[in-house]
Amino acid sequence: MTNEHELQLDLERQGIFLSTVNRFYNWGRRSSIWPMAFGLACCAIEMMAFGLSRYDVARFGAELFRASPRQADLMIVAGTVTKKMAPQVVRLYNQMAEPRYVISMGACATSGGPFRDGYNVLRGIDLLVPVDVYVPGCPPRPEALLHALITLQDQIDRQKLGRVRWYGEGVKPQTTDFPVPTFGAQGLEIDGRLVDPVGGLPLVSAYTSPEFGEMKSGRLEHPEIVRHFPIMDPTVELEHPLKARGVAPEIAADDLKRGEVGNAEA
């Protein structure tokens, strides 16, 4: 392999360039990654800095932040994903054309971060869409996001036309839209089935990365813990996604302003 590489370098010095269709195809895609222009929380400030002249992301062909998912092929999930925002993120991802990629930027987008025990925070965007590259940190610096972009480019370089997820054979879940969750009486639902209860642990496993088939891993977070809903209960009725009637006992017990649990609107 080393001799072949040295031979190729020697030929290039003489003005002779040898390549393959795979290498040329991958070079074109890795050099024109267009991120989608949207942010969710404080990590979006670091993402904005990543696009400034100081870091010169134009060197990598990723300086064109697009306002439309139809023209973008990279979704940077920058910040906390609340259960109210999760359906919109999945809907935007479905509107992106293949090939499409996802970078989970920061601890919140990856696992919920410091808010993971909050009743309204999704414990990782990979519960709903597959992620190519994870960026740790709270918040990660622009250099970390730049490293994530380079890592994504390395993944693209290793792809082969007959094996990539949008051309290869076998099961291809990406050829259909990923299910968009909706608000139910006790949390996020997909096709009428509860997948992420308000205040509880997720009832579904995360997606594996696209390099490993972007399939459901089948591994639940903390399977030893009994799934329950510490916030919502049958006494709380959801009138619509933004308004509930009734007060859960857990809230009333910790609320010094309430003398008893009644049917007052919350």
Automatic annotation (TrEMBL):
Protein name in the entry: NADH-quinone oxidoreductase subunit B
Cofactor requirements of the protein: [4Fe-4S] cluster
Organism of derivation: Candidatus Chloroploca asiatica
Localization per Swiss-Prot or TrEMBL: Cell membrane
Enzyme class: translocase
GO function terms (MF aspect): 4 iron, 4 sulfur cluster binding; iron ion binding; NADH dehydrogenase (quinone) (non-electrogenic) activity; NADH dehydrogenase (ubiquinone) activity; quinone binding
NADH:ubiquinone oxidoreductase-like 20kDa subunit domain ranges (all copies): 42-151
GO cellular component terms, A-Z: plasma membrane; respiratory chain complex I
Subunit structure and binding partners: NDH-1 is composed of 14 different subunits. Subunits NuoB, C, D, E, F, and G constitute the peripheral sector of the complex.
Cofactor stoichiometry and binding remark: Binds 1 [4Fe-4S] cluster.
Residues annotated as binding [4Fe-4S] cluster: 42-43, 108, 138
UniProt-listed Pfam families: Oxidored_q6 (PF01058)
Function per UniProt: NDH-1 shuttles electrons from NADH, via FMN and iron-sulfur (Fe-S) centers, to quinones in the respiratory chain. The immediate electron acceptor for the enzyme in this species is believed to be ubiquinone. Couples the redox reaction to proton translocation (for every two electrons transferred, four hydrogen ions are translocated across the cytoplasmic membrane), and thus conserves the redox energy in a proton gradient.
HAMAP family named among the record's database cross-references: NDH1_NuoB (MF_01356)
Keyword terms: 4Fe-4S, Cell membrane, Iron, Iron-sulfur, Membrane, Metal-binding, NAD, Quinone, Translocase, Transport, Ubiquinone
Family classification: Belongs to the complex I 20 kDa subunit family.
Segments crossing the lipid bilayer: none
EC number: 7.1.1.-
Known catalytic reactions: a quinone + NADH + 5 H(+)(in) = a quinol + NAD(+) + 4 H(+)(out)
BP-aspect Gene Ontology terms: aerobic respiration; electron transport coupled proton transport
Topological category with respect to the lipid bilayer: Peripheral membrane protein
